[in-house]
Design goal:
Length: about 280
């Protein structure tokens, strides 16, 4: 006898549709699974697990639990998943019952992204081998680690010094390659399709989790005080480009941001740095 609830069955069909039709990235699919597993658990433990349990009153009880147990950013992401799931339910039942449910307003604490200083970048980029090449790639291109690991040799255009990056939503963007980075890439052995292959299997891409582990070990080795993670290079290159006068639209294209609003957070980082330099250097400060 199938012990799955109506809600869990609906979630399974929703996730299958995402994989087959929407073609979300593995990370997005994983996030949806986590968010909806929490949703299903709440309605199964507190109610009967039926679709009819998703009433306005019960939904607000669940939202209250979300706000108590998750950080604002995680709660916001979860509610984005819930909106997609409710839209799926409405399409399935041919009504606008679920998308009519109200969502609480989540106030996110504004937290500026941490960045590396120019000296710290130079220090970290002293790494050699595959890790060194990959870190140079992350800093020069502003790529996400998941994007960098998926780069194929056929994506590299050495004649025009560019690389084609497959970003979120399966959208591609062309990013310029600095001469020092292109030189490093062309020196790498072409074992398989991936520029940065797995250390165990050349036919597979390097696993982002392995990169994070190697980077953590390396930062401890060079005794860097900051917690170094791959995304820190993305934050750093965006901020450094702004410091050097790069146009915000260029940085948006480089990073593959859908909205300029996402890119604008780096303006605040540069302003903060300006104030720090002013306080430290200005004779009247």
């Amino acid at each position: 006898m199938d012990k799955r609830t109506e809600i869990s069955n609906a979630i399974q069909k929703f996730l299958e549709q995402n994989s087959l039709v929407e073609k979300f990235s593995p990370d997005t699919h994983r996030a949806h699974s986590v968010d909806l597993k929490r949703f299903e658990k709440f309605f199964s433990e507190n109610f009967s697990g039926k679709i009819s349990d998703i009433t306005a009153a019960n939904w607000m009880k669940f939202c209250s639990e979300i706000s108590r147990n998750l950080k604002p950013s995680s709660a916001s992401r979860a509610h984005s998943t819930h909106r997609s799931f409710f839209s799926f339910l409405d399409d399935k039942f041919g009504e606008k019952k679920f998308t009519a449910l109200e969502f609480p307003r989540i106030r996110k604490a504004r937290k500026l992204p941490e960045v590396l200083s120019y000296d710290e970048v130079e220090q970290v980029l002293q790494a050699t081998g595959t890790l060194g090449d990959l870190l140079e790639f992350l800093y020069d291109t502003g790529c996400r680690i998941s994007e960098a690991c998926q780069v194929l040799w056929k994506d590299i255009d050495s004649k025009n010094s560019t690389v084609k990056i497959k970003g979120k939503g399966r959208k591609f963007r062309v990013v310029p390659l600095a001469p020092i980075l292109l030189k490093k890439i062309l020196k790498r052995p072409e074992n398989g399709d991936f520029v940065f292959p797995s250390l165990r299997d050349a036919n597979k891409p390097m696993n982002p989790r392995v990169v994070r582990r190697l980077l953590k070990s390396y930062s401890q080795k060079i005794k860097l005080r900051k917690h170094i993670h791959p995304h820190l290079f993305r934050h750093s290159v965006a901020t450094h480009l702004l410091d050097e006068g790069a146009d915000l639209r260029f940085i948006q294209e480089l990073l593959g941001h859908k909205s300029l609003t996402t890119t604008q957070k780096y303006l605040s980082v540069s302003k903060q740095k300006l104030m720090e330099v002013f306080d430290r250097s200005h004779p009247r400060a």
